[in-house]
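Exercise 7. Predict the joint structure of the components listed below.
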Amino acid sequence: MQLVLEKRAERSGTIALVSPLIAIGLTIVTMVILFALLGKNPLLALHAYFIAPLTDGYSLQEIAVKATPLVMIAIGLSLCYLANAWNIGAEGQFLIGAVAGSWIAVKTQGTDAGVWVLPAMFVLAAAAGALYALIPAICKVKFGASEILTSLMLVYVADLFLDYLVRGPWRDPHGFNFPTTAEFDPVATVPLLIEGGRLHLGSIIALLVVAAAAILLARTIKGFEIRVVGAAPRAARFGGFNANQLIILTFAVSGALAGLAGIIEVAGPVGHLQPGISPGYGFTAIIVAFLGRLNPLGILIAGLFLALTFIGGEQAQIAMKIPLDVTKVFQGILLFYVLACDSLILYRFKLVFSNRQVPRGAG
Amino acid sequence: MRKSFLALATGLLLAGTLSAASAADKLKVGFIYLGPIGDLGWTYQHDLGRQALVKELGDKIETTYLENVPEGPDAERSIEQLVRAGNKLIFTTSFGYMDPTLKVAKKYPNVHFEHATGYKRNPNMSTYSAKWYQGRYIQGLIAAKMSKSGVLGYIGSFPIPEVVSGINATMLAAQSINPNIKVKIIWANTWFDPGKEADAAKALIDQGADVIMQHTDSPAAMQIASERGKLAFGQDSEMIKFGPKTQLTSILDTWGPYYIERVKAELAGTWKSEDSWGGLDSHMFAMAPYTNMPDEVKKMAEDAQAAITAGKLHPFKCPIVGQDGKPVECKGGDHLDDGQILGMNFYVKGIDDKLPGK
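Solution:
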């Protein structure tokens, strides 16, 4: 007797939409139990997590700032994942973009370079991110190397490269040997949207990216191609779509978006290049992409939701002395339920009593 | 059933509001921590300071802390969150919070800030630190006496002046006992990463070091030294339970008295922006008991401690020769002045290592 997962014959569109909501619901139930076990009042804790940050303008700004890189990266990743190309290395592409863009900022420091600096940084960062993402894509297409592994390994390369630069050639000469570049000049800094606030131009760019991706997927042939290649590779081949070309394209686009997110983060909220510029945005964005069902609008909502958990986690720490680790547990549990709910919607458990009934391909 | 649940919920919410109301009259004091409070080193000691504060003034104040705040873009938001939660005095307890603290301080002139180990101040932002190099000097004396191989192992965090001055003080002291003493330095490039710290300790021991010292925050190096039967110094905190036969002494950060003093000033309305840099003669730090060493070494350490406390012995007594063989300018009369120590960016002669970035 064995337990197998059997693919359901039909997929219900409603359930596909409801699934992330069920996952969030289950996560909240689990968190309530966890809060109770920690001896904290679950209602107050949930209030601190999910309601309090939404009640004042300051926290809303912070949520937008935090969601900006997540959404931009996740949009790129969703294109890859839709086309069945598994880019896990967005974190590395984010860092390389940050490094490439910072190069211009560092080189023009103290000169009277004009307003071209910031746009040039954006372009270079996007190009560098794209090129960096092309390495695993080309290895996959030419040699059949697993893009999951190669893209992931390149994260560490990027991380160490950034580390080397800020500890060596780009180190701020007046920074008391701390591993950071000098503060960027105003022309190399992302402008703020609200005086005295933290909301910056990057959030607008993220919204434009979401809109562009929505149009691409819903209204263009390329978007159709991406979806068909991912959903029905055989049909796509008969249709004359080139899967390899799409791997290259989606990797390049997602690398460019991650690189752009990287330079926006560095030239925006951080203000200089240093190690630790990303608390794992490239990886958290994977959660965002799936939580948003690989749909641009969904990703926007998911990105804001995850940002909410970060900001709420901080408020819970202040208001209720709930440890930061609980926020991390929370995010982990959320991904677990999202994947679990998805599996149960696409598949069903079946008890099989003899080997004959095992569906073809399952053994 | 549902009704009783609602009643319960309302009750809980009301209870929350009530307790918040009674807390409103108290002065709110906030802390930003670099590591987890369970790091058993740097952050742990700051939290002990906070606990001492609560014990002393708990009826007049309410404290809040945020732990594990990285020295990056999130720091500014975390500090601002504390401001917005109503904290009127905020301690940011790591060097890397300097610029974020200053940014938030300029934005909220009515809130007072205290930044540990930095050098930027503002009318509403003080700095505080300790002259740990004095403790390092004593450790250098002990290390040179106790080392059989004549090689010391030093785990550095970041090559900032505070850490560099610690290495120099150690070596100057050690050379006064054994002119041929060697030191191996590994830069862990982190304040807190037990895995990396342990790896560094292993590598140093493999290179022949038999006394391990560290400027990182966890007891990992102490544990490795203990496993390998070597000697080590604790850091920030009492680490003897991780190496009962290993720890020689440890520099203990004792922030409690300072925190109490500053909060009292805030309560009295006399808080001013200051730069506090206390040595062994203050209450900023102390030395753990001298253990696992012969009595004569212990006596030497105690004598040195007394001499430094009394101001009779200065670890950076001139003449001091730099790594390049040239004498270092002596701006403080017969010793280096505070500015030279606070901005120290050179190795003394006899250190066989290149200062990163030089």
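Discussion. Confidence is low (pLDDT under 50) at residues 1-23 of chain B.
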